[in-house]
Amino acid sequence: MPLAILLAIVGTGTIVSLLPSTAWYIRIFDFLLELLLYTSFLAAMAALLAGKWRNALVGGFAFLAVIHLVRIWPYVVVAPNEIELGRPEGSECFSLLTLNVLQSNRDYARTLDLIRARDPDLILLTETDRKWLDALMPVLQNYPQRMAEPLDNTYGMIFATRLPVQSAAMPMDRVADAPTLYATVTIPDAGDFELIGLHPRPPKPGQDVERRDKMIAEAGMATPDGLEEALTLGDFNDVPWSQTTQAFRAHGGYGDPRAGRGTFPTFPSSAGKLGWPLDHIFVKGNLHIRSFAVLDDVGSDHRPLAADVCMIPESSD
């Protein structure tokens, strides 16, 4: 009977996760798909030892496991790689770092040490208030191009780069009270690309995902300067297999370095490989990812995400 009850619970969760709704208590199931897959698979194995209901239990759990496997399939390590990693011949590259610092985290030194050690060419930090901005100035002052929107509501943002910036803006979504970064950046000897930095609000009690989904969807539409080369990064507060992020990637034509390599979870930082991949780096056009990695915990509830991004000059095509 315990397995039958579990089958009913997992089955109900599966059905709920398929509902087309922006309600937080529906969309929160996007975060549970991986757990539901593992639960279904292990329960199917345990059901082999059951009595007269064995076949029904094994079949039920196996069916549910297949549903969840199909939905997260691109992020299973045996799935095909969506994009190849490496530096294309003749390309020019730069390094980047993105991190949700956790506004209430006041251990500034670990983030300062991380930036000094990695020395990235481009940085996007979220959940940054005025205290964070002031504390990070010893390293941020080394970046000639900077833009910041310090906020006390956990949706502040800092952008800094040593690459030339043609234009940059952080328009505020007044409903979500959260900015989005739009910038056109130049890779010397390669060309321009558009950069979009995101940190929409997550699903939680009293907070549905309509605004989150809209912010993500708008980032997947035509970029301000209409360039084919674009890089989107940040804390999406969403998993890559959700309907929202899949639609963003499909409409924008973005590739995901995670696909075919695993989930690479970034939240919560204490969970290691058992958490959720909420922080993302997506590229499209003539941008390529040479390498990417989820870095060690630096005191936030998110782990940093780093990558080397390359671009082939048009003359090299």
List the topology elements:
Layout: H1 2-17, H2 24-27, H3 33-47, H4 54-72, E1 92-100, H5 108-118, E2 122-126, H6 130-140, E3 145-149, E4 157-161, E5 165-169, E6 172-173, E7 178-179, E8 181-187, E9 191-198, H7 210-220, E10 230-235, H8 243-252, E11 279-284, E12 287-294, E13 305-311
Parallel strand pairs: 1-2, 9-10
Antiparallel strand pairs: 1-13, 2-4, 3-4, 5-8, 6-7, 8-9, 10-11, 12-13
Helix pairs in contact: 1-3, 1-4, 3-4, 5-6, 7-8
Q: What is the average per-residue confidence, as pLDDT, rounded to a whole number?
A: 92
Fold-level CATH name of the largest domain: Deoxyribonuclease I, Chain A
CATH architecture group name of the largest domain = 4-Layer Sandwich
DSSP helical segment count: 8
Would you give an account of this structure?
Pfam families: Exo_endo_phos. Keywords: Membrane, Transmembrane, Transmembrane helix. It comes from Parerythrobacter jejuensis. The chain is an alpha+beta fold and 317 residues long. The protein folds into two domains: 2-75, no CATH class; 92-316, Endonuclease/exonuclease/phosphatase (Deoxyribonuclease I, Chain A, 4-Layer Sandwich), CATH 3.60.10.10. 31% of the residues lie in helices and 24% in strands. It has eight helices and 13 strands. The strands form three sheets. The protein has a six-stranded mixed beta sheet, with no helix packed on it. Strands 5-8-9-10-11 form a five-stranded mixed beta sheet, covered by helices on one side. A two-stranded antiparallel ribbon has the order 6-7. The longest helix has 19 residues, at 54-72. The model has no long low-confidence stretch (mean pLDDT 92).
